[in-house]
Amino acid sequence: MTLEGLSSVAILGAGKIGGAFVRQILQKTGIRVYATGRRVETLRGAESLGAVATRDNDEAVRRSELVVIAVKPYHFPQLLSEVKQESWKGKIVVSLMAGVKLATLRAALHGAKVFRAMPNLNAYVGKSSTAVSENLYDDASRTVEEFLGLFGQVYWVPEEYLDVWTGLAGSGPAFIAEVLDALAMGAVAAGMPRELSYKAVLDVLEGTAILLKNGFYQHPAMLRDDVTTPAGTTIRGLMVLESGGVKATLMKVIEAAARRSREIGNEIDSRIREKINSRIGHTA
Ligand SMILES: NC(=O)C1=CN([C@@H]2O[C@H](COP(=O)(O)OP(=O)(O)OC[C@H]3O[C@@H](n4cnc5c(N)ncnc54)[C@H](OP(=O)(O)O)[C@@H]3O)[C@@H](O)[C@H]2O)C=CC1
Ligand SMILES: O=C(O)[C@@H]1CCC=N1
C-alpha cells in the first residue's frame, strides 16, 4: 500500500507528538485522521486541526489501516485494555513510545504489523529525525517509510540503536534548547539584551548546522579549529568549556537518557507480560 492508498489513520493519544503528527498529516495529505485523547482540551485541539476526535480507541483502530500509538509508555497497558484484541488484526501499527520494545509490542498486538519509531518534536514543522525498526514487511514497510516521511527524515535502524536514538534525537530538541538558553544567558551576563542574544544564538545554530550538514567540514572539530584564533576570543571560551567538563557532561547526558529508555522498556515489558499472563489465566 502506498501513502495514496491509505484512507484513514488513527493517532492514539493526540498530545504533543501525536498532535504534531495530526497537524502534518492533515496539512500534507487527504487522509482522514481519527485522533484520541481523554481530556476535552485534547479532543478539541485535535478537532480544531481537522481530525475526527474521539475517546473510543477501539473505534479509531477499527476504522483505520495505520495506527500510531502516541500515549506515554506507562499508559500503554490501559490503552490495551480499551482496544479489543481482534481490532488490531491486519493493522499497521507504529509505536512512538520511548523504550517500549518490539517484542513487547508483538506480544501485545497480535496479528498487527508492528513498527517501533522514535521521532522528535521537530515533526511539528516536518523536520523530525525519525528512526524506525524493523524493515520486515515489504508493503507495510514502504507505507510506514512514506508515512513517517511526512514528518521529516526517516532512517531504518536495527532496534538495538533505538534507545540511544531516543536519548540523542528523541530528547535532543530539549537538550539543544537548554544549550541555546545557556548561551543566550551568557550574552545577557556580558551585557547584551535577552531578545537580541536569543536571535543571534539561533542564527549561529542555523548557520553552523548548514555548514556541517552540507559537508563543508568533515567533522565538527574542524569547524571549531577554523573559528579559533591563537590567543583570540574563542580559545578563551573553549578553555572554560573544557575546565567545566561540558563536553563530558553532554556525553553523559545522552548516555543517561539512553539508559532510561532501556529501563522504561524493561518496566513496560514486565507489566505487559503480567497482563497477558493474567488474561491467559482467566481464560484457562
Ligand atoms: N514529546 C516528545 O518530544 C516525544 C515523545 N515521544 C513519545 O510519544 C509519546 C507521547 O508523548 P507526549 O506527546 O510528549 O505526551 P503527551 O502527554 O503530550 O501526549 C500523550 C497523550 O496520550 C493521551 N492518552 C493517555 N492515555 C490515553 C488513552 N487511554 N486513550 C487515549 N489517549 C490517551 C493523553 O490524553 P490527555 O491529554 O487527554 O490526557 C495525551 O494527550 C510517549 O510515549 C513518548 O515517549 C516520542 C518522541 C518525542
Ligand atoms: O522524554 C521522553 O521520555 C520522551 C521520549 C523522547 C522525547 N520525549
From TrEMBL:
EC number(s) from the headed UniProt entry: 1.5.1.2
Residues binding NADP(+): A70, V71, K72, P73
Coiled-coil zones: none
Keyword Nuclease in annotation: no
Reactions catalysed, as given in the entry: L-proline + NADP(+) = (S)-1-pyrroline-5-carboxylate + NADPH + 2 H(+); L-proline + NAD(+) = (S)-1-pyrroline-5-carboxylate + NADH + 2 H(+)
Residue ranges of every copy of the Pyrroline-5-carboxylate reductase dimerisation domain listed in the record: 159-263
Family: Belongs to the pyrroline-5-carboxylate reductase family.
Residues noted as binding NADPH in the record, renumbered to the chain: N57
PROSITE patterns linked: P5CR (PS00521)
InterPro entries hit by this protein: 6-PGluconate_DH-like_C_sf (IPR008927), NAD(P)-bd_dom_sf (IPR036291), P5C_Rdtase_cat_N (IPR028939), P5CR-like_CS (IPR053790), P5CR_dimer (IPR029036), Pyrroline-COOH_reductase (IPR000304)
Phylogenetic placement of the source organism: Archaea, Thermoproteota, Thermoprotei, Thermofilales, Thermofilaceae
Species for this entry: Thermofilum pendens (strain DSM 2475 / Hrk 5)
Pathway assigned to this chain's UniProt record: Amino-acid biosynthesis; L-proline biosynthesis; L-proline from L-glutamate 5-semialdehyde: step 1/1
Gene3D superfamilies: NAD(P)-binding Rossmann-like Domain, ProC C-terminal domain-like
UniProt keyword list: Amino-acid biosynthesis, Cytoplasm, NADP, Oxidoreductase, Proline biosynthesis
CC terms in the record's Gene Ontology section: cytoplasm
Name of this chain's protein: Pyrroline-5-carboxylate reductase
Location(s), subcellular: Cytoplasm
Function as written in the Swiss-Prot or TrEMBL entry: Catalyzes the reduction of 1-pyrroline-5-carboxylate (PCA) to L-proline.
KW Cytoplasm (keyword) present: yes
Residue ranges annotated for the Pyrroline-5-carboxylate reductase catalytic N-terminal domain, each copy included: 9-99
Any one Pfam family match given in the protein's UniProt record, by short name: F420_oxidored
GO molecular function, one term: pyrroline-5-carboxylate reductase activity
Swiss-Prot/TrEMBL GO biological process terms: L-proline biosynthetic process
